[in-house]
Amino acid sequence: MRTLGVLLIGLGLLAGRLTTEVKPVRAQQGCSAASLKGPFVYRLDGNYFDNQGYSYQYSAVGKILPDGNGAITGTETNSNWGTVKRNVAYTGTYTVNNDCTGSMALQYPGGPLNYDIVFIPSINQLNIIQTDSGITITGSATAQFAPTPAPVVAAQ
Asked: Are 34 and 44 in contact, with CB atoms under 8 Å apart?
């Protein structure tokens, strides 16, 4: 009986230890304009409609450079209904909300274009959709340079 009592006390102490140990909780880091920095390469595809309702195909590949403070520059090659333009330069601004969603307002030679974005920090990817009326263009951007991995140290 005494052995059973000691065993129960030991289990009680162990259970108390398991339930009273508090581990620190870290808040998930949110996003901000500073989260989006460095060169990204992108691809966009889709179509748009003119005033008569005719549909035109648009595709682009390019490079954007968000500065971490809300300003952005970029260049692209695009195909607008089969007419190719190279080295199209643009500038603009962007915002990134705490939940990693945001927007970009870009000034192209032909006028302003607007996009909504979702940044995925864990893989350095940006999903993009144009939000101007009559346009269905989507794409994604990926960090041009992968982060440098930590050096592997061999066990001695």
From this structure: no
Domain ranges of the chain: 35-143
- β-strands 101-108, 40-49: how paired? unpaired
Q: Give kind and range of the element (H or E) at residue 9.
A: helix 2-20
Within 10 A of 137 (CB to CB), how many other CB atoms are there?
20
| pTM for this prediction | 0.74
Where the chain has pLDDT below 70, the residues are: 1-29, 146-156
DSSP 10-65: HHHHHHHHHHH------PPP---GGGSBS-EEEEEEEEEE-TT--EEEEEEEEEEE
CATH class for domain 35-143? mainly beta
